[in-house]
Amino acid sequence: MKILLQRVTRADVSVGEATISRIGPGLLVFLGLEQDDRCGTAEALLHRLLGYRVFVDAAGRMNLSVADAAGDVLLVPQFTLAADTTRGRRPGFSCAMSSADAEPLYSFCLDWLASNHTSGKVAGGVFGADMQVSLVNDGPVTFLLSA
Questions:
Q1: Is 103 within a domain?
Q2: Is 78 a catalytic residue?
Q3: Which end of the chain is more exposed for a tag (fewer CB within 10 A), N or C?
């Protein structure tokens, strides 16, 4: 499981011409699911995400989590994060979780965040859709977390 998080001032997801999710200051989180990922793995990584200190405190240091900062979270499924890029010039997806297994795990992750991140808004992308993601990266601050 891989999470690419970006601290943003705002972000939104559109499908076609319709904006389906929008957040203000917080985290845009891309989620890549791999074959061996399970709910327990997801829960541990999401708990880490909510506590990851990427927001600045009064002294200007990254000491606050998204929960501390009362920031929003936008979770977007990102199949390509599970790619094997170790060889050649074309990514391989043999490690990626199948759509049939990944969709319920993505839903679990979104529900878990909605239940456990109570200091800000939680929004999601649309699994399997061709999405357009717009963001203003704050910093820029971007981290890759993996389980």
A1: yes
A2: yes
A3: C
